[in-house]
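Sample 3 of the quickstart, ligand adenosine-5'-monophosphate-propyl ester:
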Amino acid sequence: MSSKNIESHLVEKRVFKPSKQFSKKARIGSMSAYKKLWEESIKRPDKFWAREAAELCWQEPWKKVLEWKAPFAKWFIKGKINVSENCLDRHLGTARQNKAALLWEGELGEKRTLTYQQLHREVCRFANVLKEHSVKKGDRVIIYMPMVPEAAIAMLACARIGATHSVVFGGFSAEAIRDRISDSQAVVVVTADGGYRRGSVVGLKKNVDDAIKDDAQTIRSVIVFQRTNQPVSMTEGRDYWWHQEVAKVNADCPPAALDSEHPLFILYTSGSTGKPKGILHSTGGYLVGAYTTSKYIFDLRDEDVYWCTADIGWVTGHSYMIYGPLANGATSLMYEGAPNFPENDRFWKIIEEYRVTIFYTAPTAIRSFIKWGDHWVTKHDLSSLRLLGSVGEPINPEAWMWYHNTIGGGRCPIVDTWWQTETGGIMISPLPGAIPTKPGSATLPFFGVDAAIVDDNGKEVGPNVGGKLVIRKPWPSMLRNIHGDTARYKEAYWSEFKGVYLAGDGARRDKDGYFWIVGRIDDVLNVAGHRIGTSEVESALVSHPVVAEAAVVGRPDELKGQAVVCFVTLKEDVTATDQLRDDLKKHVRHVIGPVATPDDIRFAEALPKTRSGKIMRRLLKQVASGGAITGDTTTLEDLSILSKLGSSED
Ligand code: PRX
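Result:
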């Protein structure tokens, strides 16, 4: 973060108190109520979490709330629970039975509503399809789907029978699917013939075919949902149509009694090495976390229409489109497509039409809306909104103010929620009826979260001093491991400070104890809310035959937060051309997926290195953002390299 930003944090004087009207109805309606509960949750976590967990339905009660043998936590020991039962069956036989669980709008404007009863039926049927395909408790299932209700149905069906799902974002490539199949040893892939994105069709099935064409690895069946009706190739004995399979089974599928620690899902995310980490989440603890955070932070009520715009392929889609809201019996809206299709006001049209009350989106989207202009917003009636949320990256105070005024009409609290794939649920966020907000701050820790900022020695720093964000106590929805790589789990999160979780973010607290998240301290970029490891892009680049060496850094970007800038040296006798630049961009798209497309590729004769051969990324970052080279360059092997690093293509 630039010193200018840090300063703006220090001088940020604007404070927005929750309105009396909001606080009166909210679950937690005052700062003192928040503090009291937070203190209890830290001093007596067993008591606090037992009370929350007891609101869910357990097939067998737990014997002990927590067993913590750092860095391994077990929550609700010996309890038996089923996530799909809690999201569905629990609401049947109540007033929620015929309430909309999912409201869906396709990009082309189609609409579907699934009540809790209907969703339950579809989930039971698909769970029976999985059983027919010999999917057993503990087996892994890859879900590579567009944003259609069937994606949620597939996830809940896995949860119902105890299969562990791994959702792969639709913007990832065939190679990414192949890697995830190989790492997870999945037995089934659930996909669709295609999905719609900005009016064109994304060939999901084609990517799955490419992923398994030479070697199906452990995959036995591919189940294909028909979304676009475009022709796809179906391999006899391996590929099956969703609609044909569900027609063969009944809707009777009791929820399996699963151990609280049973793995609910694996979600791959980027770290600081080339190989994505399979973040493993549990059943009981994860659900208690998703349920409790949704209840208090979104202050969900039965009459709400709640809309989280995240894709189901990210953790936000898991916890706050599906599991958290449904466990609370809420109505969750799902939109398939892009915010600017067919025009820039699609989101506002949806809010107006469905009378959305809670809207949860990402700063990168907010910055695009600002750029597109207020007139797209003001022609719609957004008066139904009562609460706004932000997630995925730091929100700059200007974007926060615009969100507050132009979308929220000045009346809606904003919950800026800090968390990660690893944390499973929101960790730092305002409680909308209790905690005054400051533009750009995620404010204070959620119940049970013992967050702190420490220096390199692990010592807590004072107000307004930057440091590393850590969590000092286990929490129910924390990751349990990295699938198949316990050593990496220990190394990545627990090795720097013993028994303390290292989030990988830099942050500071102000004099009121409010957290201001600065951004990643490792080699992970946050591009339009997508987490991308620089080393993943580097290994994609060097896998191209003409590339000798590559270094990838982030550059501040007005819309995306960060842009991907690549410095590339070519093998001898290869000429740098614009065509080659385009080819390399395409190559990265092909290897990782469109989310990682480089914004800028600069050819260099050599990369700046220390005498010991380490690439000096700090210098490259400065070059990438067009800034002057500052700081120590004495360890640089060859100073002349800096002047030859080539300029941006544009
Ligand atoms: O750097 C932080 C940023 O996103 C990272 C986590 O990314 P991911 O695992 O993909 O999960 C995103 C959705 C939870 C964090 O390490 N981040 C997330 N939310 C915020 C944020 N940075 C600042 N403020 C936030 N509210």
